Amino acid sequence: MLLFFSSSRLKEQEEAHSERLKQKAQEFERWISQKEKALESEASAKKAVEERLEQANVDIVEMKKKLEQAEAKQVSEIMAL
């Protein structure tokens, strides 16, 4: 009877251990999934910032050209006086 009880208890412990391992594996998979989503989100945000920076640089170049044109126009108007 003692051998049966020990064997039964051992089997229960093995099953409980196996269940805990499954739970840990599921938790790990969930954690990995969350990290992947966070990385994707960060990559998307980085891309958006880079695009805005590129557009800002284009805008700066355009504004400098307009400023140079305005300055040239003012100089030519002053010279015409």
Number of continuous helical runs: 1
For the sheet with most strands, the description reads: none
Name the structural class. Answer: mainly alpha
Approximately how much beta-strand content do the residues carry? Answer: under 5%
Query: What is the alpha-carbon Rg in Å?
Result: 35 Å
Please characterize this protein's 3D structure.
The model has no long low-confidence stretch (mean pLDDT 93). The N and C termini lie far apart (119 Å). The chain contains one helix and no strands. The chain is mainly alpha-helical and 81 residues long. The chain has one helix spanning 2-80. Helix content is 98%, strand content 0%.
SSE diagram, text form:
Blueprint (H helix, E strand, L loop, with lengths): L1 H79 L1
List keywords for this structure.
single chain; rod-shaped; 81 residues; mainly alpha
Summarize the structure.
The chain has 81 residues and is an all-alpha fold.
